[in-house]
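Quick check before the chapter quiz. The format below is the same one you will see on the exam, so make sure you can read both the input and the output lines.
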Amino acid sequence: MVAAGLVAIGSGPAGVSAAETFRARHRNIPVRILSSDPALPYAKPPLSKQFLCGRPADLDLHSEGWFERNRIDLLRGVTVQRIDVDAQEVVTAGGARYPYWHLVIASGAAPVPPAVPGGRNAQPLRSFADAVALKMAARHAGTAVVIGAGLIGCEAAGCLAALGVATTVVAPEPVPLLRRFGVDVGERVVKMLFDAGVRFVGSADVTAVVESGVVLAGGENVDGDVVVAATGVRPDVRLAAEAGLSIRAGRIVVDEQMRTSARNIYAAGDVTLAYNVAAGRQVVSEHWRDAALQGRVAGLTAAGVSAQWDTASGFSCTIGTSRLAYRGWGGPYERCRVVDQRDGFVATYHDGGDIVGRLVATTSPVS
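Here is the expected output.
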């Protein structure tokens, strides 16, 4: 019989942070991480910032020896089938059962392929395996199309262009990052893409992914030996939903301590709709830093230590030689004030009399 302890589902920043934090407080209670990914836990931001571009990237969160030394049982390539809330057990697809005293759901999110004919043939960029496949494909490609102009799409496009691939970004919005940052910022991001060697085609709907690239609603074909899907992700809340946990807007509802509606079950990272004390409301975040912080809060709470999520969200994006750094809540805003500077710009987002976000863009000179 496997001894009960803390079980984390997912080996991303939230799951690893929860396990690491709990272990630091309780040296003798079993700690396990169940991961569907066969790779050692790794950081995802460097995949589209450095690894795809061919630059040195520090990916490993910890070495295999670190997990052994800290007596954290890392089980890779394991698919969790269900959570038995009454028995307080996690059941895998192979029939193994892992009892828990505390459970952290950090199952992350899965990429959503374009909902068009051939859409599943577009290459995602979510995992290390995805990044390796895309990097290999780029070696033999002369052209590439990136569908979607969000953060990952813009970063991936910049990397592909840096590898010498003629790259086009296609998006239904008139400018990149429109919904998050507005038109004024989006127009400046178009220039960043252009400076990075990327062509941007906005207000364009992809109707099919074909062998030669993509087909647009107007009938135009955009050539792409490689087609990348940067069309968003969907939080993986299946286990939580089937276990009867409270779900809202497709995410697991948690309080500021990362507690779910079920006893001794916590959630952290992309899957959560979490209450942030500083914001005074529930906040959705899909960024690495927040996932790690939420995982730490979950680990502390499970360990019996008082903790709460009370920091502002933050992330960065790299496009060629330009860098965008954001801090704020990422929600609705009434107005945006953009001030251009010699090496970039600063955008401040206001809601009523409050500042709810700040974006700083800087461009490094080409050496």
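If your answer matched, good. Residues 313-363 form one domain.
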